[in-house]
TrEMBL record:
Its main location: membrane. It comes from Kolteria novifilia. This is Cyclic nucleotide-gated potassium channel. It holds the Pfam family Ion_trans. InterPro entries: Ion_trans_dom (IPR005821), VG_K_chnl (IPR028325), Volt_channel_dom_sf (IPR027359). It is found in: Membrane. Signal peptide: none annotated. One of its GO terms (cellular component) is voltage-gated potassium channel complex. It is a multi-pass membrane protein. Keywords: Ion channel, Ion transport, Membrane, Potassium, Potassium channel, Potassium transport, Transmembrane, Transmembrane helix, Transport, Voltage-gated channel. Residues 36-250 form the Ion transport domain.
């Protein structure tokens, strides 16, 4: 802005000056309210997951059942309010609705309203399992979890390629062990698809022991698959660890801004 001063002898002169900034009290207050609301949401996420677990207790008493209902109603109410506020404050509302966090926020309360009044129907009970997705809301509030999510984004192509290769190895191993063990154990290694369980348990080096080879060729092949399985754990772990290091460095340098249309709790 500028100020024009008229002088009798010198004529008009323009003097530039800056408008003083607005007092920060209002903005600070809005930030504090938003932060407190976020802490409440984080606490309610854990409470919601606790209620989900309490519902599965055998011979649950009426008091505990009522407590679970109260927990669900309260948490769903807060999650709904949070979603509405973020949607109203989002610059790109449609982008927020279909963003990762937008879909997670929606899944945190939508099953409750869809299954309202039909809880005892088996398909509806299965749909309410989606409530567990509310735990993913913690990604929004934890910087460590956001680092992990960003790291996955950086190496998603490599991980996808590795997943395809791993699935191919599982299928080839299943075919091989079927032909090596089917004649000796027809009831255990019934088909290639039955052998896929053995391939997954062996390739991940878990080895439950419910399916194991008894032929010499089958044992030798199993040893080879077990050694190969070490790589199935090491390769993705190395990729993610490298991406985490890179993400943390970029965040420290300020060259990796937050991605996505997240919506804000308090409008500026």
């Amino acid at each position: 802005m500028s100020l024009t001063v008229v002088h009798a002898d010198m004529g008009a002169a323009t003097i530039p000056f800056e408008q003083p900034p607005a007092p920060p009290c209002e903005n600070d207050s809005r930030v504090r309210v938003g932060s407190r609301f976020e802490y409440v949401i984080q606490a309610l996420i854990f409470v919601s997951l606790l209620g989900l677990g309490l519902e599965t207790l055998p011979d649950i008493d009426p008091t505990t059942e009522f407590l679970c209902s109260v927990i669900e109603i309260v948490t769903v109410g807060f999650f709904t309010i949070e979603y509405a506020v973020r949607l109203m404050n989002a610059k790109n509302k449609l982008g927020f609705v279909f963003s990762f966090y937008g879909l997670i926020d929606l899944a945190a309360f939508l099953p409750f309203f869809i299954t309202l009044g039909s809880f005892h129907m088996a398909p509806m009970r299965m749909f309410r399992i989606l409530r567990i997705l509310s735990g993913l809301k913690l990604l929004r509030y934890s910087s460590c979890l956001r680092y992990l999510l960003d790291a996955f984004r950086q190496v998603r192509d490599e991980l996808l390629m590795f997943l395809v290769v791993t699935l191919l190895i599982i299928f080839v191993s299943s075919v091989a062990i079927y032909h090596l063990e089917h004649e000796a154990q027809p009831e255990t290694f019934k088909s290639i698809f039955h052998c896929m369980w053995w391939a997954v348990a062996t390739l991940t080096t878990v080895g439950y022991g419910d399916m194991y080879p008894i032929t010499v060729a089958g044992k030798i092949f199993t040893g080879f698959v077990t050694i190969l399985g070490v790589g199935t754990i090491a390769v993705p772990s190395g990729l993610i660890a490298s991406a985490l290091t890179k993400t943390k460095k970029e965040r420290a340098d300020g060259s990796s801004p937050e991605s996505g249309n997240d919506g804000e709790l308090m409008a500026a």
